[in-house]
Each structure stands twice: as C-alpha cells, then as structure tokens.
Design brief:
Layout lengths: L1 H9 L14 H6 L4 E5 L8 H11 L7 E5 L7 H9 L3 E3 L8 H15 L4
Parallel strand pairs: 1-2, 1-3
Length: about 120
C-alpha cells in the first residue's frame, strides 16, 4: 500500500487507486458500482472513443467510478459478456487489432484520461 501511495503522489494524483486481490469474474463484476466498460475483441459497433464521449454527454465522469475489464489471453467467453450486459456494462472495441492485455490496459486508461481532460 505504501508503494501505491508513493506512485500516486509522484503522479500528482489526489486519489490512490484501490487494488484488489484476484477474484472470479462473477465476483468482480457483481462488486462493481458506477460505469462499466468491458474491452471485447468481437465488439463491432462501439469504439472506446465513442462510448466515452456518449457517457461523458450523459453525466460527468470525473466523480463516477469507472470499472474497466480487460480479458485474459483468448478473450472473454460469451457468458461473461452477457453477464457484463446484465450489470449494464458497455462493451467496447479498442480498434482493428487484437491487443495483449497489458497493452489494452494502457490504451483504455489513456483513452479515459484523455476524455476526462486528465492528460
């Protein structure tokens, strides 16, 4: 926890991101409050940029928790995507390419920072 605080301080962040222990997909998705975004390689209509702009137009994003799910190698199952829809998550495309999970995390985080005018 000390390292999280120091990293946030170094980045000039007011809030220390909360980190959780590994858990099942079902437990994680059921514990979410606020906005939900799930990166899905089979999403054809919702690009991350458009989804964030639409969410931003509906309500201020700065004070809303944003829950982001990035799949494991091989992606999410159809059942997991359906479960995310039940929790009113938006599935998003990160572009034409299939990204590695560590790269997808950077891409989606940067997109959110950009839309929140935090870059």
């Amino acid at each position: 926890e000390k390292n999280n605080y120091e990293a946030s301080e170094q980045s000039r962040r007011d809030i220390v991101p909360e980190l959780f222990n590994p858990t099942s997909f079902s437990q994680a998705i059921n514990n979410c409050n606020g906005i939900g975004i799930i990166a899905w390689e089979n999403e054809l209509n919702n690009g991350i940029k458009d989804v964030l702009k639409n969410l931003k137009a509906q309500k201020p994003l700065k004070n809303s928790p944003i829950n982001v799910f990035i799949g494991p190698e091989g992606g999410f199952t159809k059942a997991e995507i359906e479960q995310s829809y039940e929790k009113e998550f938006e599935s998003v495309s990160l572009g034409k390419r299939i990204l590695r999970s560590e790269t997808a995390g950077i891409v989606i985080s940067t997109s959110i920072f950009y839309e929140l005018d935090d870059l």
